[in-house]
Amino acid sequence: MRRDLEETESMRRELKVILYGVGSIGSQIARLILKKKGLKIVGAIDASPEKAKRDLGEVIGVKKNLGVSIFQDPEKLFSTVDADIAVHATSSFLRDVYPQLISLIEHDLNVISTCEELSYPYVADASLASNLDELAVEHGVTVLGTGVNPGFLMDTLPIVLSGVCQEIRHIRVERVIDAAKRRLQFQKKIGAGLSRGEFEKMMAEKKITGHVGLKQSIAMIADALGLNLQRIDVKPVKPILAEKTVKSREISVDSGRVAGLMQSAHGIIDGRTFVTLVFKAYIGAEEEYDSISIDGTPSIQQKIKPCVHGDLATAAIVVNSIPKVINAPSGLKTMKDLPVPSAVMDDVRRYLEAH
Amino acid sequence: MRRDLEETESMRRELKVILYGVGSIGSQIARLILKKKGLKIVGAIDASPEKAKRDLGEVIGVKKNLGVSIFQDPEKLFSTVDADIAVHATSSFLRDVYPQLISLIEHDLNVISTCEELSYPYVADASLASNLDELAVEHGVTVLGTGVNPGFLMDTLPIVLSGVCQEIRHIRVERVIDAAKRRLQFQKKIGAGLSRGEFEKMMAEKKITGHVGLKQSIAMIADALGLNLQRIDVKPVKPILAEKTVKSREISVDSGRVAGLMQSAHGIIDGRTFVTLVFKAYIGAEEEYDSISIDGTPSIQQKIKPCVHGDLATAAIVVNSIPKVINAPSGLKTMKDLPVPSAVMDDVRRYLEAH
Asked: Which SS3 state, helix, strand or coil, does residue A317 take?
């Protein structure tokens, strides 16, 4: 629903949410929404035929019927319900989600998406990003891509820390995850259990992707700091091989096989590296952490240990962003454009501004 | 100058800055402003007769004449120069700075102040805060209180981290400073070198204040998270006594005398402590750090080590906030209302939005 209509009513009634994508992350977001006052899920969409027509409550595992049937065809849902915002969790890639986002915007829905490339979409496809922005402005809605990473740990948080720096020579951000503590889907995404050859083949065929978002995070940092990047060097993904047999609850990886992966990317300015991002996720990582080192005036050495739990945090930042997106001016936004992130701990309507 | 006037011009010319308060922090801010492109100091005010009529460059120690005479009487300066923003650093207390801020706003100046109580002024005096807000809106200017603490380390940063939490049971923030590494004025403010009796007498007579801002930080966190605080318990300031002789470059503290102090405050909700802030500054602190522990879903353990250098960071966040304040809607704002903090690394005009 457009923000410029029915302001008073929107301050009073629950915010109506459509869930677009009822996979693992979408389900976690849905379960969190159900715990928050002031939000009501009024519709759900998923492409999977197995989920079609089933009740959302059953699919997300809350053991009660929510009276919300999952639609395979978004247009059919849009013709039957009206909502304030769509929470979208279908794919990591901008080109895949673009038609879905267009359809949501055309139905006057604000959008928060976990699509990694949408966190800073200008580097994936500037023209698609520009179309989304224009259409969102035209429809008076706000579109945001967010998540724990990209969206927070390797971009928003270093940007926030830069706020107390007079000058900065280099920023290094690392995220190291022990994949043994994560779900099987995540372990598969990082190639755990494959041989080195299988890993390289599946990576080349894009059957596994690793972490998507280093490029977006670097571009967001550079934009926030007002720097002209010469280029972003995204290094080839490297497998991390198990040095001994390592195990998670779901999987056992023999010595010499792939335990996970290491990715890095560098933002280059004037021929020198200004930002370095390093992402490691593998079964058996001894120390899990998120660290940010700013070499500057002052220098800042920050560490979060253990690393922030990805799935819990992604569901959190999506739901916590709902009032911020509703309050924001219309258009395509990134995390650096919004007020500081913060937890929603009361009725979501409490955080809405009168426009 | 009001933002609604001369937009095009303001995007082209340097932003004109008035410096209100040329003490230690004001001088550091001024030196940083001189390093940034797009900013020009056009006037300076200081109450001290020793600084009156001297050139700002000489007083702040940059060894060149800036062609900016320091005025004792603000009104006299305002009648001769026009500016976009005032950077204000005179006192920690809202009641002291209130008439100064009123005068700045009445001259259509945006204001960034290091006044600790202004970082979240509603808990010092809600009526003065409300007057400032109304007057700022009337004059089309924005007023912000900020600094490293309050303003960042014990409020904005925990608020930002809460953004990836689904629920929070408790937040604990600690700042521990080795005062040996700080300037003499800071060492005096925390009572270093006094006997315990002298410390208690000077504290009672408000001749030393310790850190001002724990109450503001707690109130800002609660407001950002949408929580109704039952009360804020600010504990009496405790001296930390030297266990052996400890030294800084400026001062030597014998065993048994005051090396510094410890302060704490608690934000209480429904009869239980939701936020705990602990501030320690003393000569000889072995480990300097800023830590944030969130007991929640997920829990977050964050540490910055060594602690962020206070003076460098305060000058930084004041200057880095200039474009954000110029871009913000008019009125009295706090850090939680603005977009995420970020470093100004290029011409300040680059960060200005076309309104």
From this structure: helix
Q: In which band, very low, low, confident or very high, does the pLDDT at A260 lie, cut at 50, 70 and 90?
A: very high
Q: How confident is the model at residue A11 (pLDDT cuts 50, 70, 90)?
A: low
Residue A250: pLDDT band with limits 50, 70, 90: confident
Which single residue is written with the structure tokens 């060097």? A233
Residue A1 clears pLDDT 60, i.e. is over it = no
- Range B76-95 average pLDDT: 97
Residues making up chain A, counted from first to last: 355
Query: Does the ipTM exceed 0.90?
Result: yes
Q: Which helix (H) or strand (E) holds A20?
A: strand A15-20
Residue with token string 């976990």 = A114
pTM for this prediction: 0.96
Q: What is the structure's pLDDT at A2?
A: 45
Residue A351's closest CA among A44, A19, A36? Answer: A36
Percent of chain A with pLDDT over 90: 92
Higher pLDDT, residue B63 or A165: A165
**What residues contact A202, with CB distance under 8 A and at least 6 apart?**
A191, A194, A208
Question: At what angle are helices A126-139 and A94-106 packed, to 10 degrees?
Answer: 10
Secondary structure of residue A10 in the 3-state scheme = helix
What does the alpha-carbon distance between residue A258 and residue A197 come to, in Å, rounded to a whole number?
10
The Cα–Cα gap between B323 and B338 comes to 11
**Radius of gyration, alpha carbons of chain B:** 21
CA A155, A157, A158, A161 torsion: positive or negative? Answer: positive
> With contacts defined as CB-CB under 8 Å, which chain A residues touch B349?
none
User: Which residues fall within 8 angstroms of residue B102, CB to CB, at 6 or more apart?
Assistant: B131, B132, B135
- DSSP code for A248: -
Amino acid at B284: G
Give residue B247's identity as a one-letter amino acid code.
K
- Asked if the model's pLDDT at residue A224 lies above 60, the reply is yes
User: What is the number of alpha carbons within 13 Å of residue A270 lying toward its C-beta?
Assistant: 4
Q: How far apart are CA B19 and CA B22, in angstroms?
A: 7
Q: Containing H/E element for A215? A: helix A214-225
* Preceding omega of B236 cis (within 30 degrees of 0): no
**CB of A300 less than 8 A from some CB of B:** yes
Please check whether residue B269 touches A, CB under 8 A: no
Indicate which of B227, B300, B342 best probes the interface with A, i.e. most A CBs within 10 Å of its own CB: B342
Residue A307 gets which letter from DSSP? P
Res B12: pLDDT: 75
State the pLDDT at residue A5.
45
Residue A140 Cα, gap to closest chain B Cα (Å)? 18
- Name which of B151, B224, B160 is nearest A156 in CA terms: B160
DSSP, residue by residue, B155-208: THHHHHHHTT-SEEEEEEEEEEEEGGGS-HHHHHHTTTT--HHHHHHHHHTTS-
Burial of B315 (0-12, 13-18, 19+ CB in 10 A): buried
d(CA B348, CA A226): 9
Test mutation, B340, B348, B355, chain A, max A CBs within 10 A: B340
B291 reaches A (C-beta below 8 A):
no
Which residue on chain B is closest to A165 by alpha carbon?
Answer: B316
Distance CA B159, CA A239 (A): 36
Alpha-carbon radius of gyration of chain A: 21
Which among A34, A263, A33 is positioned nearest to A150, based on CA atoms? A263
